[in-house]
From TrEMBL, chain A:
Keywords, comma-separated and alphabetical: Membrane, Signal, Transmembrane, Transmembrane helix
Leader sequence residues: 1-25
Protein name: Tat pathway signal sequence domain protein
Biased composition (Low complexity): 34-66
Residue ranges of the region described as Disordered: 21-92
Transmembrane segments: 93-112
TrEMBL record, chain B:
Region (Disordered), start-end ranges: 24-46
Alphabetical keyword list: Hydrolase, Signal
CDD domains: Sortase_F
Species for this entry: Streptomyces camponoticapitis
Protein name, as recorded: Class F sortase
Taxonomy of the source species: Bacteria, Bacillati, Actinomycetota, Actinomycetes, Kitasatosporales
Signal peptide: 1-25
Keyword Transferase among UniProt keywords: no
């Protein structure tokens, strides 16, 4: 009876590990590096007096005559591309720890069986 | 099964569970918590002291000693969709000045952005921007040899969906600086938040 319970416990812990690693791996899925947006050449800016006359788009900008920021960009700057390399490295580490945990469980089962066989 | 073997088995099972559930998640939670802060209250007199504005000259270099930043600055315009261009994803990541904003030292909000991470290359130039504190120094060196020194007045983390355009791009009556990067929770598409540093010029050195 106890043997059955302990075997079930070993299976349960293995199952937990098997589900834990994919949970992390899901988070660590590398994302494709989006192509950078720049369409204009990134070079030191010349003076741009003419742009002061361009009107900010869409947003109901309250009659802000050419402001100190001549053209207000849309939305928020997208200044973060997920670190794919480090994240896949994390996934590798998780797989390694998962494998180590499975090996430990296997070793425990082996010791138990051996003791049973030897009658210890 | 004997009691010792039972104990050994139970200990192994417990250890395997602990190994499987530990790891980077806790570290991530710590980092997220660290970057969340609210703008501090009223400014000190020395942090808000107005300095005489400089003439227009594009920034060539940006230095933020508190977080070890010393980077060249490139010019950025608008992308075809109307958003601000961002610096290219390269191993030698650098900051970018939005060329439709005043140059650092001119009256108005000069806008400089940088990546927090650059994909497989790892950390971006503004990786630690959220760690800046009120009073930290930011220096912009300009192409004409002049330099403008700023003091951080506040650091804000805001949802990208609620980007405070008026606070960032709105007119001001002195030379100010906005440093922007991404932050907060990371998803498959990037980050959900922006970290924005507001700084005021405290001194200027002419060309």
């Amino acid at each position: 009876m106890r043997r059955t319970v302990l075997s079930a416990m070993a299976l349960a812990s293995t199952a937990v590990l098997a589900t834990t690693v994919p949970a992390f791996a899901d988070d660590a899925t590398p994302t494709p590096v989006p192509s950078t947006r720049p369409t204009e050449e990134a070079a030191p800016a010349p003076a741009e007096p003419s742009q002061a006359t361009r009107t900010p788009s869409s947003a109901p900008a309250p009659a802000r005559t050419p402001g100190q920021v001549a053209v207000v960009p849309e939305g928020a700057p997208d200044t973060g591309v997920a670190p794919a390399a480090s994240r896949s490295g994390t996934g590798g580490m998780l797989i390694g720890t998962g494998a180590a945990a499975l090996a430990a469980s296997g070793a425990a089962v082996f010791v138990v069986r051996r003791r049973r066989v030897t009658g210890a | 099964m004997t009691p010792p073997s039972r104990r050994a088995f139970a200990a192994a099972a417990l250890a395997s569970l602990l190994v499987g559930c530990g790891g980077p998640a806790a570290d991530r939670a710590t980092n997220e918590g660290r970057s969340s802060r609210t703008p501090p209250p009223a400014a000190k007199a020395n942090g808000e002291r107005a300095a005489e504005a400089l003439g227009r000259s594009v920034p060539a270099r940006l230095l933020i000693p508190a977080i070890g930043v010393d980077t060249p600055v490139m010019g950025l315009g608008l992308a075809s969709d109307g958003t601000m261009q961002v610096p290219p994803i390269t191993p030698d990541d650098r900051a970018g000045w939005y060329r439709h904003s005043p140059t650092p030292g001119q009256v108005g909000p000069s806008v400089i952005i940088g990546h927090v991470t650059v994909g497989s290359y790892g950390d971006g130039v503004f990786r630690d921007l959220a760690r800046l504190r009120r009073g930290d120094t930011v220096t912009a060196r300009l192409e004409n040899g002049a330099a403008a020194e700023f003091a951080v007045s506040s650091v804000r983390k805001v949802a990208k969906a609620d980007f405070p355009a008026d606070d960032v791009y709105g007119d001001v009556d002195r030379a100010e600086l906005r440093l922007i990067t991404c932050g907060g929770t990371r998803t498959g598409d990037g980050y959900l938040d922006n970290v924005i540093v507001f700084a005021t010029m405290t001194s200027a050195r002419g060309a």
